[in-house]
Amino acid sequence: MNQEEKSNFETVLIMQGGGSLGAYECGVYKTLAKHEIKFDIVAGTSIGAVNASIIAGSKSDRSAENLEDFWIEMSETFTPLLENDKLRAFFSSMHAAMYGNTNGFRPIWFTPDFFSFSFNNWPYLYEIYPLKETLQKYVDFKNLGSKERPRLLVTSTDIQNGRPVIFDSQHDHISAEHVLASAGYPFYGISWTQIKGRYLWDGTLLSNTPLREVIYASPRCDKKVYIISLFPKIHEELPKNMFEAWHRARDLMHVDKTDHSVMMSKVISRYLVLLKEMHDIIGHVPLDDKMKTRFGKLEPEYHKLAKERGAIIKEVIRIERKEESFFIFEDADFSLTTIRKLIEQGEKDAERVLAQKDSNADVSSNNAKGASSSKKPSFKKI
User: Phi-psi bin for 111: left (phi > 0), alpha (psi -120 to 50), beta?
Assistant: First the structure.
């Protein structure tokens, strides 16, 4: 890849929302960092936005260690050392529902205002501001926007108009409030965040895998994309009861749905190549004054399409979490045992995907060499 291609190419990391399952993203990032994979853009929604902000704005150069320290601090040690994942998730999620998470969210019944509580006048059950204090321990928000750090994209949802709101460190002064605005998940009763007159909820409500938002924010550069998927797309076994049905439905709502975006990128790529060929042909054909005028009027639109909106997704690498047990509130399990297991699982899965990717690259290279060496010389008759 020459210097010009490098300047027009970006490596992107995309992280989904998924509550405590975000610890899995921490493990994946640890492996990517160990392999010295550098990112130009990190984008996330909900807990993915929290992880992305720590990666982009880490107070130290060891962002992977910083991220793991954050997750250990977010974990709770109250639960007994249960080996059964489903039982541990049940007790941990019930504890979180009743008592919140010390460093993440606080129930309103532990606040003085609770005495005025009514479902008619309280649109949330948990305040998210404890997370703000925790984030400020690990993120130097002044680092965001620095050329030495990845560009950060954080997504949220405007409650009143139903539109996505994207905060971009290249253009916005992102603070802890912007990250909180991406993490207010109403189905778990977590509060919204107000920023400049807008009331914002979790970005997951519109898109849990913000690839489309990355393309919109950076439309010129071709991309290599790493997607960490927290919710399995394929699950062969049918649900046996309503809880398993809700669990599977939740997974399908949050699963990676970027296949269409990747497909459209390939279609647009073919269109742009064809458009360029036609443009070059017409540019070398003698035209009369009338056609020259029409061609001249089309030139700005052509350059706008070809240059300003010509980003192509060159490659997508997916690291997907698998499930061994099924519990609908697994994403509220902040027990230390589970957090450590998720981090370890993320590390191993990322190692496996990278090894497979390298193996496929070696096979392709060897096949290309073999095809080249097997070609017999051809002789023309004189």
Answer: beta
State the chain's mean pLDDT as an integer. Answer: 86
User: Is the pLDDT assigned to residue 141 strictly greater than 60?
Assistant: yes
From CA 30, how far away is CA 34, in angstroms rounded? 6
pLDDT at 307: 64
Q: Report the C-alpha gap between 47 and 182 in whole angstroms.
A: 8
Q: Is the pLDDT of residue 80 over 60?
A: no
| Alpha-carbon torsion angle 165, 307, 222, 280, nearest 10 | 150
15-74 per-position pLDDT tens digit: 999 999 999 999 999 999 999 999 999 999 999 999 999 999 999 889 999 999 999 999
User: pLDDT at position 126, please?
Assistant: 93
210/62 Cα distance (integer angstroms):
25
pLDDT at 174 > cutoff 50: yes
- Angle of helix 289-303 relative to helix 259-283, nearest 10 degrees, comes to 150
Give residue 294's pLDDT: 84
Q: Which of 275, 357, 353 is nearest to 321 (CA)?
A: 353
Q: Please give the average per-residue pLDDT across 226-253, as a whole number.
A: 90
* Count of positions (residues) in the chain: 382
Residue type for position 282: I
Q: What percent of the chain has pLDDT over 70?
A: 88
pTM: predicted TM-score of the whole model, two decimal places = 0.86
What's at 116, amino acid-wise? S
Q: Is 160 exposed, middle or buried (0-12, 13-18, 19+ CB in 10 A)?
A: exposed
